[in-house]
Amino acid sequence: MKTPARTWAAGIRRGVGAVGALPLRERDRWALWLPVFFALGIGIYFSLDFEPPIRMTAAMAGLAALIAACLRRSAFFPAGVAAAVCAAGLFWAGFHTELARAPVLERSIGPTGVSGRILRQDRIEGPVRVVLEEPAVSRLPPERTPERLRLRIASLPPGAGPGARIAVLARLEPVPQPALPGGYDPARRAFFEGIGATGFALGRARLLEPAETPGIERLRHGIAARIGKAIADPAAAGVAIALTTGLRGDLPKAVHEAIRDAGLAHLLAISGLHLGLVAGLVFAAVRAALALSPGVALRYPVKKWAAAAAIAAAFFYMLLAGATVPTQRAFVMVALALLAVIVDRLEIGMRLVALAAFAVLILEPYALTTASFQLSFAAVAALVAVYERLASSLSEVRARLGRAPFFLAATLLTTLVATLATAPFAAHHFGRIAAYGLAANLLAVPAAAFWIMPAAIFSALVMPLGLEAWPLAVMEAGIDAVLWTAETIAAWPGSVRRFPPLPTAGAIAAGVGGLWLCLWQTRWRLLGLAGLVAAVAVQAGTQPPDLMADGDARLFARHAEGRLYLSKPRAGFLGRVWMEAAGTEKAGSTAPGSRGLSCDPLGCAADGTVVVLRHQALEEDCRRAGIVLSAVTVSHRARRLYCTDDSLIVDRQRLRRMGAHAIRFTPGGPVAETDWDRRGRRPWVALAGPRPADQ
């Protein structure tokens, strides 16, 4: 007779055995997790606050591969492969960083003479931002000169453009650091783009050498200039240029904000929709043209020829659009799908997504940390998973509904799935969600797919003949319809929901949960819902910092009662970033007597916290505050004379040394987190002075 204990033990063993057997039922899906573990290794690399030695990561990757090989006949072989791929990702990210190392500017200099060759520019005319390669800086020796510079210039001289060499008097600055600890890191992005300094021109630029070769950048700007001449409306012209060449600098700010607030920003990011349409139209056109000759159509594989032509067209469009991460992902998927046509294998599914992810991460490991990679692959993986699940019933549903209702339902489903899949990452990077994005996409996506993009493709084909005017007029009419949709929906009450950005832990939980739901097919995939619930819980418990200070001691802020109070009424870009981090749209009033933060020309005060803006306020303010944020340096003598022993003092010197600060009030007292705490010693971190622990 079995005792209750034995019965319970037997039940537990059966349960464990059943759970352990679940992965074996989906062995054909195991390979889909390889890019996930590769990405895990890359993610570990970028989460470290120190730079791991490249030899150590190479040894780890080699050892992990050796262990996996030894386990090839063991039940632990899949785990060994996963560990080896993860170690390979860690090594590859570090190796790519070593390749990207280049001199960076550590101190502001200027005015100084700067010359260089224009690699790219963001506008056709007017104020432009240019990236200069092969620069020469009069006040820097060649070995300390960055490989690339980014400058703001009022206007370029006639004949200047990508490939031309210019000279200008400019002031150069180090690449900006994050506005808040854990926030967007422009220095890391600039590091992997090879940009070692930024700045602005102080006079007119001079043309030293015209561009010698056409180049893809000159072609992009040439096409953009032709579009700008053919379409008079600046808003429609900016959208047309963005869709055709990927250049967004000529898009008016108000139009861009309306498109973003309506949830249509993805239409401007050249990705799967755009490359798929280009490849599909070229494939259909080439195949139809070849089929006009019966002798050719019957003797030769015209379908494969058309697929090869479509791959070439998609590759050219990817280069023309700037080869961004969404474009790379889309090209890899389109190219693999067309290669399947060429080799007579028509399997299109999650394996394409996995191969595309692998390809992008191998080419650019840093892409994993970007919003474009996360949003793009989240949407695609979710859509493929849903349509894989519904594949067996789609034909029957289409027959019942009819072509037009089926297309409408498919558009609605696609928009809903993509919106839900990207919501956690949009919350993480932007702290905002377009509330009516579903309605906007239902109207705008069909117009983009069947009206705007075909006209754009045709205009590009006839542009060498000078016949682009009338297809661009057709394109302009479609763009006007989309812009009307965006502006109307963006004006609806509550069109944008703002909140503090989802912390990294929440984004990781959502990512793991989403992958679990998408990559598995049996019922145990529903365990992925736990990750989504965890992300919601993290978001619910997220609160913005109570106090903020930027690394240059120019701006301070206090968050209280759902409002953000800034030490300067005109805080510019930095103030907007902080308001987004606080999940608010408008800054609170800091007039004298304000409850949130009361300011005068000398400083600000609020509930035991003072912001010292001038030396004259230091003596009075430091005596009565437990937290002192100072735009001036507080000397050791001033601390002894004016400040209390237990005061938390964050002055100009500390901010310049440790970067931006975020301070939270806790029961145990204020806790300060610094930019250096979050980023540590990495090749892209350049803060003034040594870390306090190293002094």
What this model shows, in words?
With 695 residues, the protein is of the alpha+beta class. Among the domains are: 27-100; 109-212, Beta Barrel (OB fold (Dihydrolipoamide Acetyltransferase, E2P)), CATH 2.40.50; 373-435 and 502-542, no CATH class; 547-694, no CATH class. It has 24 helices and 18 strands. Strands 1-2-3-5-4 form a five-stranded mixed barrel. A hairpin with a 2-residue loop joins strand 12 and strand 13 (603-606). Residues 688-695 have low confidence and may be disordered.
Report how far apart the termini are: 72 Å
Which whole number gives the mean pLDDT?
Answer: 84
Arrangement of strands in the largest sheet: 1-2-3-5-4
Q: Classify the secondary structure makeup into a structural class.
A: alpha+beta
Gyration radius, in Å: 28 Å
Sum up the overall morphology in one term. globular
Tally of separate helices: 24
Largest sheet: 5 strands, mixed, barrel
Helix content: 40-55%
* Secondary structure tally: strands: 18
Unreliable residue stretches: 688-695
Query: What is the strand content?
Result: 5-15%
